[in-house]
Amino acid sequence: MQLGAANSAGLQPDQGPPLSIPASFFSLAPLSLVAAGLVLLLGPELTSRWTPTLMAVTHIGTLGLLGSVMLGALYQMVPVLAGQPVPLVRLGHGVFVAWVVGAVALIGALMRPSSTAFTVAAVALGCALIAFLLPMAVALGRATSRAAGAHRVEVHGMRAAVLALGVTGLYGVYMASGWAQLALPANRMALIGGHVTIGLLGWIGVLLTSVSTKIIPMFYLTAEFPRRPALVGLGVLVASVFGAALAPLLGAEPRTVAWLALPAAALVWLVHPAIVLRMLADRRRKRVDMSVRFWQAGLCVGPLIVTTAIASLVSDDARWPLLFGWFAVFGWGGLIVHGMLTRIGPFLVWFHRYAPIVGHTKVPPMRQLFPASRSRPALLLHGLGVAIGALGLGLNQPILVRLAGGALVGSGVVLAYAMARMATRSSPRKE
Amino acid sequence: MGEAQRGTDERSGAPDSATQAITTLDVRPILATGRDPLDDILTSLAAVPRGAALLLTVPFRPTPLLTLLTSRGHGVALRPLDGGLFAVVVVVEEPSVSPSDLSDLEPPEPMEVVLGATTALARDEVRLYWLPRYPRMLVPLLADRAVRWQLVALEDGSALLHLRGV
Q: What is the pTM of this model?
């Protein structure tokens, strides 16, 4: 006899992903921090954004740290926020394997160019993206984009972000293929500009800003985002990003691409931080939560990204693009994603491992799974790394860049330790 | 128009009458016709069994109605929604029962409170909860519990949960 009913779709037990899928992607985050840190610590000096080392570090950050966490998070967020299960969700295991193979091959190829490595990277990452994007597109396509007569910003945002990931990947795979055949595609600089723009602002920026309209109020008990301004902002953001990203195909020069992206940059790195920081300051329950500190630290980097972006456009000094990328990938994106790991990770572990036995036996509170004593040092090391690295890049001091690398290694080790302790904590039995 | 609706969704399977814990009535269409919805409310209420709830959506604070229903021995609670709307919960013949508001709890505390309640309820004991948003992740967990439950999504994205011990 059925004992319950709901007037809206809940998740069936087999419709959310198994914990192993998001967890496997999340596990790449600390490894990527360590890897990026080691390259900075031990590798050659960073003198230009075009050095192999810098390209490798950038892609460790974008694929290993940011991309991995966001892919894993989407497997969980789409069913919860959009109300639709991801079909063939267990294909996520295959996506993970292909993603790792492709990312490692690409990073290796960027450091030591190899036609074989570029080919492996292009094929593996291409397969990973197809296997990820198609089921996601089905789920998001089925999702209701309106609720209570109003558009759901988070659903539209996830759709745009997933599309942006596809375009980012298309550009990237195309360029990797070009390297593999030792024949570079035409208008390479503009393609790179489009790849960076849609990757940073489209994939990462749209996803973080649109999903934050739900998860900030949900996790931190802030006021809700004003829905209409958020929807308008998302529309402007998406138009700016895709306009800038597709402009190279129409022959636009890199600087034109950059100027087209400025509205999006302002929204993602100036307007959104201002709104969210205010919301966090005014939240109802001001419990100290390290993930809030990560958000605050990451969002504060936003204005620095815009400053360095504009400086890159008006100055030929090679340090400005270096700083732009550093702030965007390891500062803003890295800190926010690192912080969300410290919140979403223990939540998912608690949900899968302990929620079924609540009331039957004593279970630990979620905060015990990832205490502040473990996330605080990781935040300090990560933040310190970003700050010291910026000084090193800005003042041309290689020793500071190496120190920053050491700090990132430390942050990654602490994060890895915290995640391992959480994952290996024994579960009480149901009484 | 204006008929009381059972708070269910056929996508989750039509529940039997034992699980009809929340009946919903939106009085706005009635008011739009110029009628006083009081008769409709009382008619709907008469069909709701003891311990079950009538959930009203009203476009203003219905102070006289709240007083009337309280005086008749029902548990009554009011919750403001967006756009000047109010949700009124009437727990039939249970004057001491009103929804606990879990909106000020961070995830997963609301889930923890609800799941803990499912093992603490005496037979036919009723509890209600306002949840800050529709708890999609909670639904499969409730389905595994020996308790009668019903969830209704509200217009502002929040939800009302009715639990009854078995």
A: 0.90
